[in-house]
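Fill-in record for Protein ANTAGONIST OF LIKE HETEROCHROMATIN PROTEIN 1.
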Amino acid sequence: MDLDEVAYGNAIEMLEQVLIEEYENDRAIGLLLGRMGANIMGMLEDGCDLEENQENFNWERVEVNVDEYRRMGDPSFKRHFRLSKPTYEKLVLTLAEYLLESGRVLRIRSSIDIPLLMVLWIMANPDTFRSVALRFGVLPGVVHFHYAYIIEALREMGSMYIRWPNEQERQGIKARFEAYSGLPGIVGVLDGTYQNVTAPKVQKDRFRNRHHTYAFNTMAVCDDNLLIRDLYVGEVGSMHDQRVFRRSPLYQKLVRREGLLQPDEHIIGDSAYQIMDSVLPPFRNVGNLTAAQRAYNYAFCKCRARIEHAFGKAFGQWRRMKMLHSCNIELAVDHFTASYVLHNFMILNGEKLIDLDPDDGFIPDEEDLADRNEEEEEDDDDDDDGQEGGAANANFAHLVRQAHRAGVLKRTQLLQLF
């Protein structure tokens, strides 16, 4: 079988790494095949860099002193890798501990700090695997190998950092939202956002959104501190926000009243969401709002701005979320989830989020959000997603109707405050 120089060089390097690590023969063969596969995947993900796949192309390694990255201090380190040096070192220890406890590695023979720096650079910048490999003095396939298992590990760590607030935390969130807006009972803000990707190879039309781009529709709930409290990633961009919400585990738990909220607590969302006792949207403005309803909507939007701020900060920190050049759906879901996990990791460790650069767009204020709420259209259909037929479906539909009636009553009572 003829191999070009690039593939041959990559295979030799993978083989050398396996032999150095001294695994048993069957494990060594498996590791070799896995790493060679990751190398090929790395070349495919950089599909635009066709020159790498030309028959006469030869990858020339550039010697890079990666220890310079280790010695780099703040603020330069944070500017490049988005984390301050102390927070980064804590992430290295946390990730290494998880890899060992989860059984992903038997033992860590070398530090994962440089592989983690490669992944952070990819997530924070729109560079290709080829350019990152050149920056760190390795092959593109090596970069992709580390990228694939690290973002998968970060995704699996999501339950450690993306958690629904307990009763004590909800009390604090409610108090801060009420002090800010005058509206009681708010424990979170719900919204969806598009995560743009390269057109998938299968059923790509389902990913085309109303902006005529290919994307996932990601749903998130945040608190007043921009901490993501619930995340649902992976639905196609053509799906309406309300339908994405209906297909999420959070919706099922809220409708069935599984103890996430007390009767006087709720989350808020824009007018794309149907009213429930646990989810309150603003009053729709069709030109007939009363003064009290307009005042309610204004106070409402002051709170709802937090989810816009959370998305803005996350996209500004981890810029690859704006456009991920990947045709691999599973890899894209891992990447987006890992980005939100790192967003929460920074907040929970007291890290100051980087302000948006001027070319990163703007975060809307309350008046912008009020205008946007008035323009929202509820174009969702009423089919039941993820529900079984028969008696179970009828019972769930009854719970939904109950939640809707209770939500209308709750919002009417809140209106009396204005």
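KEY FINDING: The two ends are 78 Å apart (CA to CA).
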